[in-house]
Amino acid sequence: MIEITYLLNSGFLVRVGRTLLVFDDFKDPAGAVDAAVEAANFDHLYFFASHGHFDHFDAHICAYEAKTERYILSDDIRCTKALSSFDQAKLVFLKTYASWQDEHIAVESFDSTDIGTSFRVVLKDEGVTIFHAGDFNWWDWTGEPQEQRKLAENAFRKQMKKLKGLEADLAFFPVDGRLGPSIDKGAKVFCTETEVRALVTMHSVGYPAWQPPEGFFGAGRSIPVWSPRTPGEKACLKDGQFLAD
């Protein structure tokens, strides 16, 4: 069972067994991380930040330092002045196509089509794999010159060659309403070319919840989807289905 709490934008708190993973917590208006840390019913806590953009990383996460095993950060965050307030021994910086592990989790980083990285995290004891895309997406902006749109497609497809066949029990991937008719282009290719078993959409603040149109995942294939919109909203992935809290 995987318990998920939406923070904001691409931020999520994920519980698997007695392990907590926090991704891209730049703002947590519902206080979900505070509540989870104060409850203290976990054994391991890890923070991830996919890149240094303000809506993915904020130094307030150092407030949880005493309970955190590691802060696993994209290498572009290394030069951020705010990191001086962190316990340096707890910082792990990953460049693209790098890896890190301890007794409890194994992390692999992939490239992005913006800056920073995406993460694939394996929880060793539970045998659960989670992928968080960060800002990796097919950023096909309507109205941009055709040449620019083609470059965006090429960058996306180049990275998809690295991700082809990737397996994950749960994937977090952008479905950004600002892209208009291209809102789900990246998600469609990603889900078609990988072996993800459940999808959580992200990076669509202020837009209606997205649900896949009929046939989106290909003939005979169905993937459960959760598209949260309200900070603090929760869902549980159990037996291949999302159950609302």
From TrEMBL:
InterPro entries: RibonucZ/Hydroxyglut_hydro (IPR036866). This is Beta-lactamase superfamily domain. SUPFAM superfamilies: Metallo-hydrolase/oxidoreductase. It comes from Mitsuokella jalaludinii.
